[in-house]
């Protein structure tokens, strides 16, 4: 494969943690190319038939995912002038075993970028995002969490796995153990919010493109409570229609669509009691993640957010 015909980087996740923001930052760099769609999900589903069964899965993941190698590579046909080429599919991290195998087969030299977020906040963000799209049937976050195991059993796709997608250590370990820390860049959502310019320049440097290029970032893919249920219902209905979805995406630029959607949302931190319970459930996951990062890329912990603060079990795990 020649220059411009294949990717050399992947933003692999996690979902609702800033992957879209990173993709948009790269789109503004003169020497970077991000596929359209940004989430073709090739690494996770190469060679597979898409048949997820959750609400809206038939017009989203099942239609958008590109599982044929040649069709996937055709996304890069206009990228020949760019030194940095890739996609931003959050399925890559969640289905790590499949993704690692695909990388080894097709793109063994590619660099990988992962951005992580407080797993409890990430779960509520995913729930709110699905509610705002008119797809999440539960109006109670706790009920949605209680239904997760059944949804997984019934074949709903990964965005619905609110707890499961926050188990970062087991997802990230295969990438670090297979490709090594020099090929994997670990970032944090909280750091991106605090210092987008610094994160952008760090990302550029890792990918080998001009780190002094301007970093442009506008809030994207935000979640929250709808201000107008009528407008949100119309947005959800349009996104469930393949024809309307395709037409809207064609005639309305992404940033404009985001501004319309964002204007109808008010921030929401979620139910404190449920989030506290979820933080307790996922506390061991954060311990495992810190131990993993301590072994493979300890420098990443210098910018670790509070939810990844050192704990006794993490420190003990790092020493083993």
Please describe the structure with a list of short key phrases separated by commas or semicolons.
alpha/beta, 320 residues, two-stranded antiparallel sheet, single chain, 5-stranded parallel β-sheet
Low-confidence stretches: 312-320
Round the mean pLDDT to the nearest integer and report it.
87
Number of domains: 1
Strand content: 5-15%
Major sheet strand order: 2-3-1-4-5
Q: Please provide the ordered H/E string of secondary-structure elements.
A: EHEHHHEHHEHHHHEHHEHHHEHH
Structural class: alpha/beta
List the helices and strands and how they pair.
Blueprint: E1 9-13, H1 19-27, E2 32-34, H2 42-45, H3 61-64, H4 69-73, E3 84-87, H5 91-94, H6 96-106, E4 111-116, H7 119-132, H8 141-146, H9 148-154, H10 168-179, E5 184-188, H11 189-194, H12 196-207, E6 225-226, H13 229-240, H14 242-251, H15 254-263, E7 265-266, H16 272-296, H17 312-319
Helix pairs in contact: 7-16, 10-16, 16-17
